[in-house]
Structure prediction request, 225 residues.
Amino acid sequence: QQKVQQSPESLSVPEGGMASLNCTSSDHNFQYFWWYRQHSGEGPKALMSIFSDGDKKEGRFTAHLNKASLHVSLHIRDSQPSDSALYFCAARVSGSFNKLTFGAGTRLAVCP
Amino acid sequence: EAAVTQSPRNKVTVTGGNVTLSCRQTNSHNYMYWYRQDTGHGLRLIHYSYGAGNLQIGDVPDGYKATRTTQEDFFLLLELASPSQTSLYFCASSERGGSYEQYFGPGTRLTVL
Prediction:
């Protein structure tokens, strides 16, 4: 079983809609979380990080972290076709050499 | 923005062949990483390094060697390639401090026949 699990595997939302992606961990040593986004044919690119409980907002993107339940979510407001991509959740252990553990990803399709 | 380049972009080899994948970053980052990406598994860490001459073992190291020759250059070696190593390979780099954000290259698609 992967230490970082993402759901759903795929998601389709209409343009202008809200997309919600989920990530849970089975390892309480994970304390720092990232969301990465990968467009087709490209390498992943960091979208945002969240290290403290609660919400973190960056433009149309909001991440939420609950450390007690090891649950992280990403919400994309006013989704655009350019948001269509593969989204990865990644987790890091406190004090580790920046070693990230990635989930399997959620593929988001935003339909015009 | 951090620049990470990889070569070749595509490679086809036969079972038992030798393959070297190259990665260069031009931002003086201390840390460099090699990942493989497979559907259903996401990105899995093969090897990583925190400086020239240093090598750390990742989560899926079997069948792979790596070498960090300079601050900028990190190589992944497959000495006896197998079909199970057919995958998309990414190199990444990050700073020593700050946010530790990892910057990825464009990837190398490797096919082992």
Notes: Chain A touches chain B through 23 residues (CB under 8 Å). Residues 53 and 67 of chain A are 6 Å apart (CA to CA).
